[in-house]
Amino acid sequence: MPELSSLISFLLIALVVIVIPGPSVVFVIGRALILGTKGAIQSVWGNALGVGVQILAVALGLGSLISSSELLFDVIKILGALFLVYLGVQGIRHRGEFSASLEDGKRTGSTRVLLDSVVVGLTNAKTLVFFIATFPLFVSPEQGSPITQMLVLGGFFFVIGVASDMVWAIAAGSARQWLSKSSSRLEWVRLGGGVALIGLGAYLGYYSLTSG
Fold it and tell me: Which residues, 6 or more positions from 26, have their beta carbon under 8 angstroms from its beta carbon?
């Protein structure tokens, strides 16, 4: 286990990073407006699984390899941004499928929703940079295996992140259910969700290209 003081400091930083609305929050809200509460919750778990893989990769040393290759890191960021744009376009294209949307994503396919969200989590450059930059700061060799300590830190981040995203998913999904009483209103909501995802992807893509 990391030292208690280090763990508390990490949790405070992680809480700020997670609670302040960022790419994950916008992604979950966009998915909730397109797929409903069930689809949003599946998206939360899928995104979390992707982030969990990042945690394992950084803890096991792969994070340093990625951070040392500027090209590889840029490719990951661009692919993630393009995938968000793709999800947004799909949401806009199918915004008129009112009967399908009332099924809360059943026709979209639970497995597909989950896998799409895993990709988003895997390519989330914000969390990857956070793990690479902060994990070493809160690890003390005197406290045992650095890998174990980083996994513990990542585990806390994982739990806080899922809890926070679930709140956003349920809130946005509930608002969408109320709007579903009107097919035209719901179509506009789905359009808004798609636009939000496209905007997020475009912003992250532009930031990735200009920050290098």
Answer: 196, 197, 200
- Domain residue spans in the chain? 4-211
77: Cβ–Cβ under 8 A, 6 or more apart, which residues? 123, 125, 204, 205, 208
Q: What one-letter code names the amino acid at 117? A: S
Tens-place pLDDT, residues 105-163: 444 467 888 888 998 888 887 788 778 877 877 777 677 788 888 899 999 999 999 99
pLDDT, residue 45, reads 94
Cα separation values, 24 from 37, 164, 198, 200, 207, Å = 16, 10, 14, 10, 16
Secondary structure (DSSP) of 9-54: HHHHHHHHHHHS--HHHHHHHHHHHHHHHHHHHHHHHHHHHHHHHH
Strand, helix or coil for residue 180:
coil
* Main-chain phi, psi angles of 26, to 5 degrees: -60, -40
Structure-token match 């499928």, residue found: 97
Cα–Cα nearest to 200, from 124, 122, 98, 134: 124
Torsions phi, psi of 106, nearest 5? -65, -40
